[in-house]
Amino acid sequence: MPFSESKSGAFWDWKEDDAQVELWVPIPPDTIKKDVVCVISADHLVVKHTKLGKTLLHCEPLSGPVNAEESTWYLQGEVLCVVLAKQWRGETKSDQYWGALLVPKGGTFTCYMAAHDVKSHRIAREKREKLEEEERLARFKASRQREKQQREAEAAKKEAEAAKAERRRRLHGRQESGTCDEAEALDDEDGSTSRQQTKRSSGVDSWFTLPVAVALGAAFLVLVEIFVQFRKAFVAL
């Protein structure tokens, strides 16, 4: 039920279909439900503010019959919402519409705010509500994005841990089969830097074997003996 711009009279902020009429009445700041008295009968609607001693809206008689028992009202923020359930009249749905006026000409139709001010209040409220909804949506999207990034980070961490566990499993199998050296084992534990350092150490160990050590020792003894003989000859002179 969109708002119709053809409304006239003291109050324009209402819309209808064949079953009901809905009204949105701006209320003074800090109004609570006990401050409001809303009287709905078959042929009139009166809204009063008891704390201020002011009539906010008076429509009598209404442009069509109302089922008071099925009608209701409630406060929604800074607005009083009134829902009037229509009594069936005539023979078709078209007969149920009230037209441009809540009250026929000659009736009592007053509102504590000018119709233009009520409309401006509604437009400002709708803009504010739209902005608030956009902000809520932006916060929701940001929250979902953070949750997505967190899930992706956790999944990446689990994947890395699983890959590391798989490497260790394969390395263990190779160690048991004798196809893995110590350097590869250290590589899995400490990373590529440790592996490079281990490889350099392994390179030294590969040529410094026991036979080489014996040969070097013998050569050293020969050099010592030559030095001793040379010294003796020098002293004899």
The CATH first-level class of the domain at 14-113 comes to: Mainly Beta
Helicity, in percent?
40-55%
Strand order of the largest sheet: 1-2-7-6
**Whole-Å distance between the termini?**
131 Å
Q: Given the helix and strand composition, which structural class is it?
A: alpha+beta
Number of strands: 8
Could you name the CATH topology of the domain at 14-113? Immunoglobulin-like
Inertia-based shape: rod-shaped
Largest sheet: 4 strands, antiparallel
Instruction: Please state the second-level CATH architecture of the domain at 14-113.
Output: Sandwich
What radius of gyration results from the CA coordinates? Answer: 47 Å
Average pLDDT level? 83
Q: What's the layout of helices and strands?
A:
Layout: E1 14-16, E2 20-26, E3 36-40, E4 45-49, E5 54-60, E6 66-76, E7 79-86, E8 108-111, H1 115-177, H2 182-190, H3 192-207, H4 210-236
Antiparallel strand pairs: 1-2, 2-7, 3-4, 4-5, 5-8, 6-7
Biased composition (Acidic residues): 179-191
Protein name: CS domain-containing protein
Domain CS: 7-102
